[in-house]
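hey so i finally got around to running the thing on that chain from the lab meeting. sorry it took forever, my laptop kept dying and i had to restart like 3 times. anyway pasting the input first so we r on the same page abt which one it is
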Amino acid sequence: MKRNDFLKKGLLGIGTLVAVPTVVHACAKDSDPKGDEAMIEDCELSPSETAGPFPIKTPADLMRANIVSDRTGVAMLITLKVLDQSNDCKPLSGAFVDIWHCDAEGFYSEYGGIALQPTDFTNAHFLRGRQTTDANGHASFISIFPGWYKGRAPHIHLEVLDPNEKSIRTTQIAFPKSVCDTVYASTNYKGEADTLNSRDNVFSNSIDGNMADSVSGNNTDGYTLMKTIVV
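ok and heres what got predicted. didnt touch it at all, straight out
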C-alpha cells in the first residue's frame, strides 16, 4: 500500500489527534534517514531483548496497521525497515513484524491483576499489532506515542518472525529524552519518565542499537518514528 493511502485510511481511526495533511507531507519520503548504503555498511544485528513482561498473546489475530483502538495520546506513525544480515543486508520481504507498547498512562492491554499492573485490561487488545514486510522490507503502524511505567525507560517492543511464524529477532526501540519530555508534558501523559535510557536495565549496554533512527514531528501534528531492524 502506498504511504499516503496508508495514512489517509489509517488516520481516520485516530480522529482529531493528527492533522492529516501535515503528517502526510512529513512522511512522504520512503528513504531511511541513515541512508541505505550506510545501513548496509554497518549492518550490525539489532540488539536481542526480552519480549516480557507483556508480550502479545495471539499476534496472528491482530493483523492490522492501526493499533490505536480506544487509547488517547499524541499520534505516531511507526515506520520500520527490516534487513537480512545473512543476505548482504538486503530488505527482508514477507516477514511478520509484531509490535506492542503501553498506553499514555503506562498500561498494557491483555494483562492486569498483577503487581506490575493492577489495573485489569485482560480483555483489551490496544496498542498491539502485526504487519507483513513489503518488497522493500517496510512495515508501518499507526499508533500513539507510548507512555512509561516505573523502572523502565520509554520503549516499544518488536519481534520479527519468518513466514512460518518462527521468531527471528526480538528487540526494543528507545526514544530520545528530549522528545519524551515534550510529549509527556502534554495532556493524557503523566510527566517526565522516572528512568533514563542510560539507567534502564535493557538499554544500558545497547542504547546505540536500540535508539530510534529518527523521531520527528510535534505534539499537535503527531510524530513519525523511523527505525531499521537488522535480523
